Structure prediction request, 94 residues.
Amino acid sequence: MSGKYTFTKALKEVRFHLCQTSDHSAATRSFLTRAYPTMKKNNPHTPIMIREALGVEPRVFARYEYGKEKREELMGLDDKEIESKVTSLVMTGI
Prediction:
């Protein structure tokens, strides 16, 4: 399957941490509102988790085979920069 958010086979989980009310997470919330349906449609069996907590800095984690993880900070980025960071995590393996 080819698509904008088709994940690599080695990816087992994507996790977003963000604050549900703060300004520093606004771009991440906007990105998820726009991109989550497409990501889930193209990867129905890969868990995409959204963890909201008050005051948390926005970041994304990607867990790959054998428990390997990568993390990217999303603080201060706009929607397109977040898309670039997330795309690099989900399309490339570890």
User: Anything to note?
Assistant: The first helix runs from residue 26 to 42. The radius of gyration is 12 Å. Residues 16 and 50 are 5 Å apart (CA to CA). The longest strand covers residues 11-18.
